[in-house]
Amino acid sequence: MALLKKSSIWIAFLVALLGLPLLFDSILAISILNQMAIGIVFALSYNMLLGQGGMLSFGHAVYFGLGGFLSVHALMLIEYETMVFSILWIPLIGGLFGLLAGIFIGSFSTRKAGTVFAMISLGIGELIAASSLIFSSFFGGEAGISGDRTFGPTFFGFDFAQNIEIYYVAAVWAFIATLFTWLFTQTPAGRMANAVRDNPERAEFIGYSSRKVRFISFCASGMFAGIAGGLFALNYEFITEENLNAATSGRVLLMAYIGGLGYFIGPIIGAVVLTLMNSLLSNYSELWMLYLGIMFLLTVMFLPRGFAGFIMMHQVAWVRGNMKMLIKPYIITGIPALLFTACAIVLIEMSHTDDEVFHYLGLALNPASPITWIVILAIAGGAFYATKRSLIQLNDAWETANAIPKEEEA
Amino acid sequence: MLEVLIFATLNGLVTGFLLFMLASGLTLIFSMMGVLNFAHASFYMLGAYFAYSLSLYFGFWTGLIFAPLIVGALGALVERYGLRKVHASGHVAELVFTFGLAFLIEESIQFFWGRDTKNYQTPDLLDFPLFTLFGQEFSAYRGFMMAISIGIFIALYYVLTKSRVGIIIQAAITHPQTVSNLGHNVPLIFMGVFGVGTALAGLAGVIAGPVLTTFPGMATVLGSIVFVIVIIGGLGSLAGAFIASLLIGLLQSYAIASDVGMPDLLNLLGISFDRSHPLNDLWTMNLPQIAPVLPYLLLVLVLIFRPTGLLGKREE
Amino acid sequence: MAILSLIDVKKSFGITEIIRGVSLDIVEGEKHAIIGPNGAGKSTLFHLISGRYNVSAGSIHFKEQQIENKPPYEIARMGLARSFQVTNIFQRMSVFENIRCALFWSKGYGYSFWHLLGKQTELNDEAMHVLEQIGLADRAKFPSGELAYAELRALELGVAIASGSELIMLDEPVAGMSHSEAQNAVELIRKITEGKTLIMVEHDMNIVFDVADRISVLVYGEIIATDEPKNIRANSKVQEAYLGEVPSA
Fold first, then answer.
1. What residues make up the domain containing B198?
2. By the 8 A CB rule, do A322 and A397 touch?
3. How far is CA B229 from CA B243, B270, C92, C237, in A?
4. Is residue C185 part of a domain?
5. DSSP states along A105-173
6. Quick check: do B and A touch, 3+ CB pairs under 8 A?
7. What ipTM was reported for this prediction?
8. What local confidence, expressed as pLDDT, does residue C95 receive?
């Protein structure tokens, strides 16, 4: 019974992963789900480094990309029948090479955390990305390399030609990877990673070499990044230099940070949110990267623990049964805040459009007329002022909802 | 051969001094505030774009003066309203903040100026060859770049060693703990250093824009290199940053100008491989090809064997 | 039987010599206090013994093995534990996790990533036992960074003693505590160091004379006297160094 209760969340996660394509079955939805599964594994591996182990990396795409490149090469080997095995095991190849790369690079880069580590990771990332363009017979130069996942033995009649088939493969792998990254946090090595993150010096005085603790997390993280790279290779059947360069490293940092470092579920939230933004927002606006940048900076400034941290902030109020005290204040602040955001977006979009009539939220606006601009600016100003004013009552409500009840104090 | 060497040296020095304008600001900011400003090269890019826009209406020389001032003011604002707030969340958050800022600046530039390369021109006044050597011209503008960079170097040296503010900054670099004991004006000094540092980056952008092309990726091209320089030189060491700037500038310039490669080395050793060899890429590699990789290779080596950098004293 | 011996240990930073040839034998099972004016090098001496600093000259033996210039973790594994003057814990982890981490090595878990902690009943019970000893059992799940000062000091002590090391070094364990808190802390120290060797740096002379079997006086990087408390009190050189700071009672 206790075991059932403990594993219920995992069963729910697995059911959600496997059930989502039944709810969202369009081609676009399946492609988004695939990206999410890859993103979750990649972001979790990154959180192992930064959130759990305190190592800020600017070159995590190296392990993702190397895992991916080796996986595409493995697909080619299957295609030419040099080796015969089911493509189900491709992510394992990616993981193995991610691990090997982690062992090699970690052996010298984990000596220190902090700025030195961050800089080594940046240097190695740039080094490998630049080298990959030189060694074009392996990395395929700018065009990258491609494979075909439909060769090799079929699995109960499936040949994996369809994206949905690959999604189920990715979902199962994502589940396994999530489970193992979580189990890692429940081991002595996982806990010591937290300890070394908090205080590397003291860890040495309770018998642990900080460097070795970091090294273990680093290798594990490289392995899971490699698995994500393998999933990428299976899904897209090609990989390019872009998948191991700084842009990809930056994206995984964004995912983990926006989701919330230090919370296990944070990177999962981050991967889901960013993938959705990437796929959906980019349909509506070519400026979505700008919005992403703004959102990222605001998150760093105002929600240093990310979305997951924001949710966890409400734990106390929830436990004390005070959540209902917060609903009204949230609505009062939320409405003008949303209005302000909407105005800001329309101003940005309008300044960037060549259309004579700009359609937005059912409105038809004339970007050429100064009146449109003045009205929207006025609304934005009003909404900003209202948001700022209403923050006072939100703060008060927050204080009361989190206050220690009288009887507990005594 | 000799003319190649001379021109490679001159171009290396131009790049080196330009890099130092960025590296010096980055080093000052790091020394004072403990923040490695990831967005430093983005301010350099902003400098180029502001100067480009100003030059369209008022000419190059107005841009040269005002663009760095605007960039510096922006930098000071970023410190005051962004970085200072994030400071409470620790160094990782600060580094991540500047990383996000770099991202945002690049996106904003594309928003305001578009994705295409800007036709930012050298001024007519400097559009003549400064001298001709072995039939090759060295443009006056490159001379001007070098003059400005050296001028800034001397000014910086003078301010840091002779002025009162400079002495406070010097003290803060060598004894970071004492900064907090200096009194109530420390936040102002931080803001000032950040502003001046970013203004220097902006100035570098103004003078580099016409030569290195003004496009939204120009920060990425130079950004990592400047990071490499401050680390190779030793975090917090201005002298180290100076040496490393020239070193990297010259190294890249020589590597690009040279036409030697692995085939020459193999010939020398009397080894040959046929084209189907699996490591063919390695055996045919030449120096200009790997020039972009050299700084990073140097960085990784330095960090492994001398984590404090050439002249650095502090590890963290 | 000396469990720890220092032979002519020296330490300089640049041209400044902080420890100027210290030789000292700590007898197994004794409670040894190191006292001395500020800047005498007491903390530096602790750092040298526990491996945080390398010695400039001389040698240190723990249980008959040379330990000078070994990394801290190797020394800790041999059974030498220490606390810090400024609280030095794993601030984002819970109180319980702090203690449990301190137990890992001595319980033989090493760098294991195949033991699930939830299943390690013996380890978890032991961690709870330590928490009860230091009086923090009801704070087990509390984030350690948010503890009150006296509780933090108790946790600092707990992290040092959890592994059951034979030699425990405490750097100003009661600094900054109120009188009653200090009294409690002394009781705690007495209880948890029973049957073990203790070296302690402390400024509160009442506590030093209360707890210590022997006292060493460190002045300007040199030990000017090592003796039983009553002889230290009578020692004129100590009197001089302390200018009457030694309580006469």
1. 2-217
2. no
3. 9, 37, 34, 56
4. no
5. HHHHHTT--HHHHHHHHHHHHHHHHHHHHH-HHHH-GGG-EE--TT-S--BTTB---SHHHHHHHHHHH
6. yes
7. 0.91
8. 95
Contact list in C for residue A51 (CB cut-off 8 A) is none
Joined together, the tokens standing for residue A273 give 């949110």
Which of residues A41 and B8 earns the better pLDDT score? Answer: A41
Instruction: Evaluate whether residue B276 is within a structural domain.
Output: no
Return the H-helix or E-strand segment holding C4. Answer: strand C2-13
Quote the minimal CA–CA distance from C196 to chain A in Å. Answer: 17
- C abuts B (3+ Cβ pairs < 8 Å): no
Cα–Cα distance measured from residue A19 to residue C69, given in angstroms and rounded to the nearest whole number: 59
C238 and C218, same structural domain?
yes
* B59 falls within a domain: yes
Assess if residue B227 is contained within a domain: no
Candidate from A116, A119, A348 with C-beta closest to B227: A119
| Residue C158 in domain | yes
C92/A198 CB distance under 8 A: yes
Question: Could you tell me which residues come within 8 angstroms of residue A292 by beta carbon, excluding any fewer than 6 positions away?
Answer: A254, A274, A277, B103, B107
Give C4: exposed, middle or buried? Use CB within 10 Å, 0-12, 13-18, 19+.
Answer: buried
pLDDT band at residue B183 under the 50/70/90 scheme: low
Q: Which residue in chain A has the smallest CA separation from C102? A: A206
Residue B79 DSSP label = I
How close is the nearest chain B Cα to the Cα of A153, in Å? 29
**Has residue C212 been placed in a domain?**
yes
Identify whether C142 is part of a domain: yes
Could you tell me if C68 and C136 lie in one domain? no
Give per-residue pLDDT as tens, B124-147.
Answer: 777 777 777 776 777 888 888 888
pLDDT at A406: 53
* Phi, psi angles (nearest 5°) of residue C142: -70, 140
- Write down the pLDDT at residue C32: 94
**From the first residue on, what is the mean pLDDT of each consecutive set of 10 residues in chain A (410 residues)?**
77 91 89 94 96 93 96 92 85 96 93 83 89 86 88 78 89 96 95 94 94 96 97 94 91 92 91 90 82 90 90 84 84 90 87 78 79 88 90 86 60
pLDDT the model gives residue B176: 57
Phi, psi of C36 (to 5 degrees): 160, 160
* Same domain? C114 vs C214: no
Q: Is the pLDDT of residue C138 over 60?
A: yes
Give the closest of B82, B280, B307 to A116, CB-based: B307
Token pair belonging to B121:
């021109």
Report angle CA A96, A102, A103 to the nearest 5 degrees: 90
Number of domains in chain B: 1
Q: Does B207 map to a domain?
A: yes
